[in-house]
């Protein structure tokens, strides 16, 4: 008996959730997000939130904003990570009960998705002191991503320009390297290529 339709989580849409679904539907964005999550420890929801704040709200997030974001979501994100870890462990379990395992994996995936949604509603409800700005969207996105990278104390922040360019490409937004930054994402690209091999 297939109860997949009954298991699909139902969410009240909000602008950040709609933006995330639209962006994450592009395979290249999904791949880059998962790479950044696994390789650098980035929170995909915060990554997408950074882009959303820049693209939709024209808001530049400062390092103190990322501290506030972390304090707000840290405990909940640990629960999301626990669910993800459990799902991955079960996915790599024995093949003796493949059908039951697939059913459990699908249920866990839906629970994880619901937990991600809750985290997104937490993020979307945050208010910041910074006002919308007239800076160009590519510059804003890249600066937000760079500030997030600095908050995490990552040595390699070159991923920000590559992700920014991909984001603008899939959303059909005008992207100009001159309006973003001049950082060449060589280190990030070489790691990304190696990860997909």
Molecular structure report:
- By secondary structure, the chain is mainly α.
- Helix content is 68%, strand content 0%.
- The chain is built from nine helices and no strands.
- Helix 2 crosses helix 4 (44-55).
Task: Describe this structure in a few short sentences.
The protein is mainly α.
Segments where pLDDT lies below 50 for 5+ residues? 1-7, 175-186
Helix content: 55-70%
Mean of residue pLDDT values = 80
Query: Which H/E pattern describes the elements?
Result: HHHHHHHHH
Total beta strand runs: 0
Distance between the termini: 38 Å
Topology of helices and strands:
Blueprint: H1 4-7, H2 15-24, H3 27-40, H4 44-55, H5 63-91, H6 98-124, H7 137-151, H8 159-170, H9 186-196
Task: Looking at this protein, list some descriptive labels.
68% helix; 197 residues; 9 helices; disordered N terminus
């Amino acid at each position: 008996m297939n109860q997949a339709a009954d298991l699909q989580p139902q969410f009240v849409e909000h602008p950040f959730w709609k933006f995330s679904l639209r962006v994450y539907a592009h395979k290249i964005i999904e791949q880059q997000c998962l790479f950044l999550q696994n390789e650098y420890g980035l929170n995909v929801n915060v990554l997408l939130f950074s882009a959303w704040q820049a693209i939709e709200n024209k808001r530049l997030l400062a390092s103190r904003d990322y501290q506030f974001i972390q304090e707000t979501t840290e405990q909940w994100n640990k629960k999301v990570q626990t669910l993800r870890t459990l799902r991955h462990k079960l996915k790599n379990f024995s093949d003796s009960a493949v059908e039951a395992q697939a059913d459990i994996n699908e249920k866990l995936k839906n629970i994880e998705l619901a937990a991600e949604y809750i985290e997104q509603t937490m993020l979307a409800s945050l208010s910041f002191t910074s006002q919308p700005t007239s800076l160009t969207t590519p510059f804003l996105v890249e600066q937000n991503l760079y500030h997030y990278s600095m908050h995490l104390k990552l040595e390699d922040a070159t991923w920000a320009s590559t992700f920014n360019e991909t984001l603008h490409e899939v959303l059909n937004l005008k992207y100009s390297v001159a309006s973003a930054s001049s950082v060449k994402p060589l280190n990030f690209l070489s790691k990304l290529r190696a990860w997909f091999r």
